[in-house]
């Protein structure tokens, strides 16, 4: 990562923020009208037996960058109460057309600027001055990615289960919103968003210090039961074209509250840990970043300094969460104060904040804490500081699109110092 092109990397990492903000923007089909109805759902009789999924989604690891171009909804159908809930033929044809265009783009050229005439040049889509050779080293296939994104903007439609006041997600809704992918017609939808918030559910149902997740799982089960009983499109793939979003540490476990959601649904998770059941190719690894006031930190939006203005070899600041960080601290503290100083909390140099240190370092350590993901990964990319990922089982965001090995360093926990 001698020169990390801001346009090529950062534009890709921003895409998920833009698309997810779009997904979270709308109101939608009136499935559940109030939080009280959800909470009363536990008294409902169980929904009619749902069909077994005979063919599941074959997904990219990134719903938002690949979108409808690589999402495959089963052509088979199921019947419920005599109704035909198969995927509409028009939707299948749209997906087939998008897939064909992406395959064509991938075969013709790997360089974005050398496409078939229907694809924008690198200078027009990214910032001026970005070299095609840099795009090819960072993207697995720039032309295929660009065509996929264009097809997503052109075709993708999402239907959103109406938000419930009690469970409406808070943090993921920050930032600017567009309505380009929303449809109020479920027959046109390629995917259905379940906008429940695991964080809000935990606040509502979890008793501190009990470590009892049963109330959370029961709440998720009730939520999905209400949706399934009133929303016939759940049954056209037993929930396989429905997705949830969570950056809470318990997000992966929350889906276990309902067997079809856990087995078939698309889980967009920040805690994308394969050792805890994350499924690359079906689930979505979401990069996370702290938006303290709802917008990107202004320090990360400013032009990054060059290597000559980076006096620090490596930088990390954070809590001693988990064994990895604790081991690194024990190894480096006091080892070589002149070359590698380690400051206790509150004793760092005056006049420099967290982002200032990051922008003045060449490498930014991103060790796992209690969970594998960390906002440091995205912050480091924005600061053009090489991420050093010390983690096991972390499915990196955009791994099907980006060549992470070209601009980051991965260190297995077993071989890390300490």
UniProtKB/TrEMBL annotation:
Main location: Golgi
A single Gene Ontology CC term: Golgi membrane
Family: Belongs to the glycosyltransferase 47 family.
Subcellular locations according to the entry: Golgi apparatus membrane
Topology with respect to the bilayer: Single-pass type II membrane protein
Gene Ontology molecular-function annotations: glycosyltransferase activity
Pfam families for the chain: Exostosin_GT47 (PF03016)
Phylogenetic lineage: Eukaryota, Viridiplantae, Streptophyta, Embryophyta, Tracheophyta
Position of the signal peptide: 1-25
Domain named Exostosin GT47: residues: 138-414
Keywords carried by this UniProt record: Glycosyltransferase, Golgi apparatus, Signal, Signal-anchor, Transferase, Transmembrane
Protein name: Exostosin GT47 domain-containing protein
């Amino acid at each position: 990562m001698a020169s990390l092109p801001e346009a090529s990397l950062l534009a890709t990492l921003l895409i998920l923020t833009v698309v997810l903000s779009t997904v979270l923007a709308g109101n939608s089909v009136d499935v559940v009208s109030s939080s009280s109805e959800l909470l009363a759902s536990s008294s409902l009789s169980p929904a009619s037996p749902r069909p077994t999924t005979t063919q599941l989604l074959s997904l990219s690891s990134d719903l938002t960058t690949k979108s409808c171009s690589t999402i495959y909804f089963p052509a088979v159908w199921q019947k419920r109460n005599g109704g035909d809930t198969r995927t509409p033929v028009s939707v299948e044809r749209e997906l087939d057309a998008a897939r064909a265009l992406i395959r064509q783009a991938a075969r013709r050229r790997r360089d974005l600027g050398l496409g078939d005439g229907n694809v924008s040049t690198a200078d027009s889509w990214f910032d001026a001055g970005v070299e095609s050779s840099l795009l090819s080293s960072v993207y697995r296939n720039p032309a295929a990615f660009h065509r996929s994104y264009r097809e997503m903007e052109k075709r993708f439609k999402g239907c959103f289960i109406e938000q419930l006041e009690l469970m409406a997600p808070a943090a993921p809704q920050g930032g600017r919103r567009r309505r380009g992918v929303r449809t109020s017609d479920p027959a046109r939808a390629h995917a259905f968003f379940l906008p429940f918030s695991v964080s809000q559910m935990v606040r509502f149902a979890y008793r501190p210090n009990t470590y009892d997740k049963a109330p959370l799982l029961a709440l998720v089960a009730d939520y999905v039961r209400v949706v399934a009983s009133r929303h016939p499109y759940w049954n056209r793939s037993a929930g396989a074209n429905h997705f949830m979003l969570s950056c809470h540490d318990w997000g992966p476990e929350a889906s276990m509250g309902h067997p079809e959601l856990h087995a078939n649904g698309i889980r967009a998770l920040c805690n994308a840990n394969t050792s805890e059941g994350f499924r690359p190719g079906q689930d979505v690894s979401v990069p996370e970043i702290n938006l303290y006031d709802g917008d990107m930190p202004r320090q990360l939006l400013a032009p990054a300094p060059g290597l000559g203005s980076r006096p620090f070899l490596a930088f990390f600041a954070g809590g001693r969460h988990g064994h990895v960080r604790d081991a690194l601290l024990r190894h480096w503290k006091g080892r070589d104060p002149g070359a590698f100083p380690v400051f206790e909390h509150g004793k760092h140099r005056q006049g420099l904040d967290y982002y200032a240190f990051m922008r003045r370092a060449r490498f930014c350590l991103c060790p796992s804490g209690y969970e594998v993901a960390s906002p440091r990964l995205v912050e480091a990319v924005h600061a053009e500081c090489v991420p050093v990922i010390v983690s096991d089982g972390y499915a990196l965001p955009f791994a099907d699109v980006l060549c992470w090995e070209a601009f980051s360093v991965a260190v297995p926990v077993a071989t890390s110092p300490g």
